[in-house]
Amino acid sequence: MTGSIPIQSVRLYEVSPRDGLQNEPEILSIDAKRRLILGLVGAGFRDIEVTSFVRPSWVPQLADAAELVRSLPAVQGVRYWGLVPNERGLERAIECGLRNVATVLSASETHNRKNVNRTRQESLAAMRQVIATAKDEGVAVRSYISTVFGCPYEGAVAVRDSVALASQLFEAGASEVALGDTTGMGDPVLVQRVVGAMAAAGLPLSRIALHLHDTKGTALANVLSGYLAGVRIFDGSIGGVGGCPYAPGASGNAASEDLAHMFQAMGIETGIDLERASQVGVALADDLGRELPGRYHRFWLGSQARARATRSA
Ligand code: MG
User: Fold this and answer.
1) DSSP label of 18
2) Number of domains in the chain
3) What are phi and psi of 151, to 5 degrees?
4) What CATH number is associated with residue 167?
5) Is residue 5 part of a domain?
6) Phi, psi for residue 273 in degrees, rounded to 5
7) pLDDT in tens, 133-168
8) What is the whole-number distance in angstroms between the Cα of residue 304 and the centre of ligand 1?
9) Furthest C-alpha separation in the chain
10) By C-alpha distance, which of 227, 243, 208, 210 is closest to 19?
11) Burial (0-12, 13-18, 19+ Cβ within 10 Å), 173
12) How far apart are CA 229 and CA 223, in angstroms?
C-alpha cells in the first residue's frame, strides 16, 4: 500500500425537524418544515428525523406528521425517520410510507416513569413488540436510550444499566442504538467510559450513535470523546434548534453545523456542504423569528453581516 491515506468519515443524523421543533414554542407551517427538510437534503444530510407520531395533543408542533411525510419526495440515499411511541404510532408511520422509525426509552427508572408512566422493563417489552412488527414490515428501527449520561431526578445512571438496555435492543432487532444525553449532564470522560463499556460488552460501535446536548456547553467535547472512543454516528440539529433558552428543561441539541465544521477541520468527512447547511440555519432562524444558539450559526451570521458592510463601504 503506497500513498493511500485511509479516509475517516462520520455520519451526521439530523434531528432538527423532530427533536428541534418539538422543543420550540413556535409551530412552523408544513411548507416551512418541508423547506427545512429539503434544505437539509440539499446540504448533504442523508439521515433526517422528520417528525413524530405521538398523539398530536401531546406535541402540537408535530401534529401534521402524516401529511408532512406524504409530501416529502423520495431522494436516492436519503432516509427519513419518524419517532414512534408505540404500535399505533408505528402503524401510522408505515401507512404514510416511512421505512425508518425511532423508538425511545430511558436508562433511568424514574425518568422513564415520569415520561411514559411505565417501568423500563415494561417499556422494553413494548419496544420489542414495535421492533418485531417493524422488522416484519422491513422497516429499520433506531432505538434511543435517553438519560444515559445522567438523570435529572436520579443523578448518575449506572453504565451497566445502559449497556444491558442497548444489548437487549440490539437483540430485539434494532438497527441502531442512539445514546442520549437528555439534559446535558455528560462529560468527555463519562462518554469514554460508556462507549468503552458498550464495546467491552461486544456491542457494535458502528451501529451506536451519540445524541449529545449542549445544555451546559459540553457537546463538542463529548462528541470528540465519542469519536476517539470509536463512535461514528452523531446527532445534531441545525443551528442547535431545540434548545430554547426560555423553556424549562430545554434540550440544547448539539448544532449540526458545529459538528460538521469541527469534523471537517480535523480532516474527517461528513458529506455536508457547510455553506448550504448554514443557509438552512439562517432560513430556519427567519421562520422562527429569532437567532438560534449554534456557535457556527452565529459565526456565519456575523461573517455575512461583515461581508455586506464591506461591500457597501
Ligand atoms: Mg435532543
Assistant:
1) I
2) 1
3) -120, 135
4) 3.20.20.70
5) no
6) -90, 105
7) 999 999 999 999 999 999 999 999 999 999 999 999
8) 28
9) 65
10) 243
11) middle
12) 10
How far is 291 from 297, CA to CA, in rounded Å?
9
Apex 311 CA angle, 306 and 313, nearest 5: 90
Q: How many residues does the chain have?
A: 313
- Identify whether 239 is part of a domain: yes
Distance 234 CA to ligand 1 centre (A): 11
In DSSP terms, which residues pair with 73 in a beta bridge?
Answer: none
Which tens digit of pLDDT belongs to each residue from 195-247? Answer: 999 999 999 999 999 999 999 999 999 999 999 999 999 999 999 999 655 55
- Residue ranges making up the domain that contains 59: 11-312
- What is the Å distance from ligand 1's center to 96 Cα? 24
pTM higher than the cut 0.90: yes
Query: 28 CA to middle of ligand 1, Å?
Result: 18
Q: Compute CA distances 125 → 52, 55, 177, whole Å.
A: 21, 20, 16
Q: Is 86 exposed, middle or buried (0-12, 13-18, 19+ CB in 10 A)?
A: middle
- Asked if the structure places residue 159 within a domain, the reply is yes
Of 124, 210, 231, 244, catalytic: 244
Q: CA of 221: how far to CAs of 13, 191, 212, 234, in Å?
A: 18, 10, 10, 13
Which has the closest alpha carbon to 149: 180, 124, 120?
180
Pairing state between β 140-146 and 176-180: parallel
Q: At how many degrees (to 10) do helices 219-228 and 188-200 cross?
A: 30
Q: How far is the CA of 214 from the centre of ligand 1 (A)?
A: 9
Report the percentage of the chain scoring pLDDT > 70: 96
Asked if 197 contacts 160 with a C-beta cutoff of 8 angstroms, the reply is yes
Q: In the structure grid, which three cell numbers stand for residue 60, read together? A: 402540537
In the annotation, is 244 catalytic?
yes
Tell me if 6 is assigned to some domain: no
